[in-house]
Amino acid sequence: MSKKIVAPAYVAAMARAEADPASARFWVGLDIGFKSTAVCVVDVDGAVVHQVSMKSHATEIGRYLRRNFKSHVTLIGMETGGLSPHLAGKLREQGFQVAVLDALQVHRVLSVKRNKTDTNDARGIAEITRSGRDYLTEVYVKSNLCFEVRASLIMRDRLVKQRRETEAMIRGLVRVYGGRIEPGSDSPATFRERAIDQLCLIADTEGVDLRPRIIPLLDLCERFYIEAGRIERELDLLAASHPVCKRFMEIPGIGTITALSFYSAIEDPTRFRHVDDVAAYLGLTPRVYQSGESLTHGGISKMGNQLTRTHLVGAATVMLANTRSFSTLKDWGMKLSKRVGFNKAKVALARKLAIVMFSLWRDCTHFMAKAADVGPHRDLMRARASA
Predict the structure, then answer these.
(1) Number of other residues whose CB lies within 10 A of the CB of residue 183
(2) Given 195, 196, 225, 300, which residue has the most CB atoms within 10 angstroms?
(3) Residues of 20-31 as b/e, b for ≥16 C-beta within 10 angstroms?
(4) How high is the pLDDT of residue 2?
(5) What's the pLDDT band for 163 if we cut at 50, 70, 90?
(6) Is the pLDDT confidence value at 288 over 90?
(7) Would the pLDDT of 295 be above 90?
(8) CB 132 within 8 A of CB 29
(9) Are 198 and 174 in contact (CB under 8 A)?
């Protein structure tokens, strides 16, 4: 904004700031949109000082705040969204304090207002930033490296799913004409051979040539497979050069994908006070509902990152079903599966894996197959670190 602000509330607030600089504090709420962002500034009493809408660009927002409020901005608040990590990082580089709030919690607070507008949302976020941060969750914004790793994991996951969905579609098209493509193909080449055999058989018996329609889909499956393999090789190199991920992969059932997924989901272990908080953060702990005399424990909350939770459950399944090496962790999971069933046991083991991986990371230790060796090994690593 190049024009000088002449609103009475702004003029009065800046006059008070000039008279008493020590008490001059302003809180800013941003309601971020793809093209424009609503900005609301409130003072220490919660009164609106100025409201404006501008482009969703950190440089323009920072210039507006520095020009009109100098160094009196105490905190900038925004809710989570697609542009929030970028804007938060850029505003912090400009020297501002930024709090990124959980969008679901902010929505519940703002839903008490009758009219939902961008201006009202920005004012509500500014008020929450000023007085409500104690009861709302502030979101940790990860580094660019973590976002890059997450992007690779998401792209690989999407490519694998698209290949499987395309192969399932081909199976369905062939089945209409009485064909059946045998399952269990490990590569697109094997699936392609089986599919073409069925297409030739259908052409001979039914007189219908599906090859002009199906072969382009088979080529697409092969390209999905090649691109996913390229991303996996890059992730393998990254995990092999990362000391934390290398320790994760010492656990039976934990591979490159799960190790990098867990690392990029957490990034900083010091932001969790207790090891059990990690399982709750990833949505692997049961829901609890208590009211009066009733207390109900439900299924897992499924909050947090779904992709990392899926990877941990997959690793737990591999540990229970495919690994042959002994470990106290696997023995615990096998005993639990006999009592509560395999599906519940693998989720419980995934929760255990998250706690174990976090403990290895926090304590700089290695995985011990026997639980009796964990304590002495931890003491040894602490002694080496303090020496």
Answers:
(1) 9
(2) 195
(3) eeeebebbbbbb
(4) 54
(5) very high
(6) no
(7) no
(8) no
(9) yes
Domain-embedded: residue 2: no
The yes-or-no verdict on residue 375 having pLDDT over 70 is: yes
Tell me whether residue 69 is in a domain: yes
Residue type, 206: E
| pLDDT at position 18 | 83
Provide the residue range defining the domain that includes 81: 9-135
- Model pTM score: 0.86
- Check if the beta carbon of residue 244 is closer than 8 Å to that of residue 361: yes
Q: What is residue 271's three-state secondary structure?
A: helix
Do residues 363 and 268 both lie within one domain? yes
The pLDDT value given to residue 75: 94
Assess whether pLDDT exceeds 70 at residue 20.
Answer: yes
Phi, psi at 184, each rounded to 5°: 90, 15
Neighbours of 178 (CB within 10 A): 11
List the CATH number of the domain containing 76. Answer: 3.30.420.40
| Residue that is last in its domain, among 111, 135, 159 | 135
Asked if 269 contacts 284 with a C-beta cutoff of 8 angstroms, the reply is: no
pLDDT in tens, 313-349: 999 999 999 988 889 999 999 999 999 999 999 999 9
- What the block records as the tokens of 285 is 């702990």
> What is the pairing mode between strands 36-42 and 98-101?
unpaired
- First and final CA of the chain: distance in angstroms? 57
Which DSSP state fits 63? Answer: H
Residue 383 CB partners (closer than 8 Å, separation 6+): none
Residue 66 pLDDT greater than 60, yes or no: yes
Rounded distance, CA 151 to CA 378, Å? 34
How far apart CA 319 and CA 350 sit, in angstroms, is 10
Domain count for the chain, please give it: 3
Both 207 and 286 in one domain: the answer is no
Segments of the chain assigned E as strands: 26-32, 36-42, 48-55, 73-79, 98-101, 286-291, 294-300
